[in-house]
Amino acid sequence: MVVKTENLVKRYGNVLALDHLNLEVNEGEVFGFLGPNGSGKTTAINCILSLLKFDKGKIEVFGKPMSPDAYSIKRDIGIIMQDVAVFDELTVEQNIDYFSGLYIREKERRAELLEEALEFVGLSGFRKYYPKKLSGGLLRRLNIACGIAHKPKLIIFDEPTVGVDPQSRNNILEGILKLNRQGATVIYTSHYMEEVEQICSRIAILDKGRIVASGTKESLKAMIKTGEKITVECYGTCCDDALSSVKGLSGIISAYCEDEILHIKAGRSNCLAGVLERLNKSSIAYGRIYCELPTLNDVFLEITGKHLRDKEA
Amino acid sequence: MQVFKLYFRILSKHTAVISVYLSIFFGLSLMFTLLPSASSASVFIPEKTRIAVFNEDEGAFAKALIAHISERTAPVQISDTKESIEDALFFRDVEYILRIPRGFSESFLKKDNKVQLEKSAVPLSASEVHVDFLLNRYLRFASIYHGLLADISSEQAAAYIEEDFKVEAKTTILDSMLLVEKSGSRSFFFLYYSYSVMAIILLSVTTGMLALENRNIKMRNLASPLRTVSLNLQVVLGNLVFAVAVWALSCGLGLILEKGGMNGRINMLLMANALCYTFVCLGLGFFVGHAIKSQNAIHGAVNVVSLGMSFISGVFVPKELLGETIKRIASFTPTYWYVEAVNSISTLTNNSSTLDILNSMLIQLGFAAAFLALGLAVARHKSLANEA
Fold first, then answer.
1. Radius of gyration of chain A (CA)
2. Minimal-distance CA residue of chain A relative to B212
3. Rounded mean pLDDT of A41-68?
4. Scanning A188, A209, A282, B161, which has the fewest C-beta atoms within 10 Å of its C-beta?
5. Taking the alpha carbons of B32, B34, B38, B42 in that order, is the dihedral positive or negative?
6. What is the average pLDDT value for chain B, to the nearest integer?
């Protein structure tokens, strides 16, 4: 076990940020911490890293109790913060060298690691640049390089893709998988379910400081009633007619109309044929029809009654 | 020593600004040190009072008296009206007005004292005493000559008197006086040091601390195996090395400018006082570094604090010209005590006590400790705020 928390409780005044959090992260996995903003992801990470005092509970990292002076444990941890944490006064290579120098004293070894880190994040051509001259995506890559240059066994990514363009986001996600393939255990926190689904082997869904569900993405999806989601584009005022015609169909959990679009949640797969048959029989004019498998957002929605992200996200 | 090296790397990015402060300081110091080389303290030149004379007497004695006085004063022409005389005295166009009434020569020679000289002067002024002295001296000598030599003419008596007054006492300027004069340029150097060193150290300490106190960077440092004690010690060491280097460089330049012609005791005191003030700046930098939130605010804070304290404490303007209220307010700043000590040291003689100077230095160290404590309190408050 790389990380283990038992009944972790953290309060900010009257607000319960972590509510008896129990967590286990195994060696070699990419563990996803999924939850909406304010759910306690960053608080949990800060407690694990001993950057925050907690009120109750126990934390073990690499099988040893974690504390602010557990320097031997900290030596094997890399942290990539949500906000870029680099010095504007230092160049790309000076920044990486400084942060790896906090872990490794030998200058020659640091020089090797610097080259590897630059290569890994694709910043070799920008080594003499100052952070202010880098684009947002490149800056994020520098942030990552500073956290992984010393080749840690456990790497914690705290929402590293917030405000990053899709191309840089893909680069970051690919990089995380590459680090995992090289042997690092990864804890990845995000409120972007697609990212977590894409790279994490195991996921814990957090809400109000509690883990509401955990497991592989398949097992999480299997926990909910929704088997597939069907979307039907209707013309004119026929949406309500379509809604009446599919109601009562076997396997349908819920259906509703919104902006002339019929949304159907079905409890099992292959409901689409039945829906089409009903619509045809009722001579209802419809346009395109989509059928999707449930997402982690559906899992979160069904468990907590709310969305993982605001609509705009 | 990663953090120690980092501190100087961060400072090196601000070399331009620090160099500007240093260049202005050294440039002005050089200028002020070289300018007083044509010092007036090594030569004695008697002062000449501006005087207006209205002679209503036609006698030769009065003419000889005017000639004598005119040579030793600076005669000024003004109209002989009441308004003109009052205005001239009020605006200090003249400091002394002498009126020789008709019949004065005759009366003086007869010794009947019926006609006296009339004067108007700036009350209680040194110039009044000076001209009175010149007149009395001439009249006394004239009285002696006319008393002893019955047939002597006024011209002849004037010639004798002029001959007597040609004998002048040799004026030698004491070394201690020259030292006080010399200390003028040196005290400027050390007075201006207070502004420069405060600006430079505040700028550098706050810049370094702002970078390291950035929340995310701080968390990254704390998440690393670097011991917190080691991190803090390296920051303190970086600040200390920089501050002492600035002090040593400045004092070294001060010594070079003086070309070694100084009193060793005074030098030591000035340097010790400057070191105390350097520690004050460090403490203040530590406090401001914790209190400030952005790079833009640094320059504003540096200028407000360093210029403000310098102005009210008598760095740029002599203390004598400052109002009592300003001085009372200034006494709550460390710069005031630094300036107080510099002024005391500059006029120090071999027999003077250094108790007041040491007292001022101790007060400065007290300020340094207070700023440090304030900085620690702000740091503690911020740390608790992050936890809450």
1. 23
2. A87
3. 91
4. A282
5. positive
6. 83
Check: CB of residue B246 under 8 Å from CB of residue B200. yes
Query: Which segments within chain A are labelled E, that is strand?
Result: 3-12, 15-25, 30-34, 56-61, 64-65, 77-80, 154-158, 185-190, 202-207, 210-215, 228-234, 252-258, 261-266, 286-292
Cα dihedral across residues B244, B249, B251, B255: positive or negative: positive
The closest of B206, B290, B14 to A89, measured between CA atoms, is B14
In three-state secondary structure terms, B240 is helix
According to CATH, where is 3.30.70.100 located in chain A? 228-293
Determine the CATH number of domain A228-293. Answer: 3.30.70.100
Give the orientation angle of helix B175-213 with respect to helix B228-258, to 10 degrees. Answer: 150
**Residues shown for chain A:** 313
pLDDT at A237 over 70: no
The predicted pLDDT at position B208 comes to 86
- Tokens 């740390």 belong to B383
Would an 8 Å CB–CB cutoff place A85 in contact with chain B? yes
Q: Any idea which architecture B50-165 has in CATH?
A: 3-Layer(aba) Sandwich (3.40)
Q: What is the ipTM of this complex?
A: 0.81
Tell me the shortest Cα–Cα distance from B331 to chain A, in angstroms: 38
Beta bridge partners of B55: B100
Chain A closest CA to B2's CA: distance in Å?
7
Touching check for A72 and chain B: CB below 8 Å?
yes
Q: pLDDT tens digit string along B118-166?
A: 988 888 788 889 899 989 998 999 888 888 887 888 888 888 888 888 8
C-alpha pair distances (Å), A72 with each of A65, B104, B176, B259: 11, 108, 67, 57
Q: How far is CA B108 from CA B57, B59, B103, in A?
A: 12, 11, 9
Q: How far is B255 from B249, CA to CA, in rounded Å?
A: 10
Torsions phi, psi for A296 (to 5 deg): -65, -25
Domain A3-216 grouped into CATH 3.40.50.300? yes
- For residue A82, which of A52, A48, A42, A121 has the smallest C-alpha distance? A42
Number of CB pairs < 8 Å for A and B?
62
At A111, list the tokens.
């020089």
User: What does pTM read for this prediction?
Assistant: 0.70
Of A75, A81, A102, the CB nearest to B216: A81
Residue B261 buriedness (CB in 10 A; 0-12 / 13-18 / 19+): exposed
Amino acid (1-letter code) at residue B51: I
Q: Where are the domains of chain B?
A: 2-39+175-387, 50-165
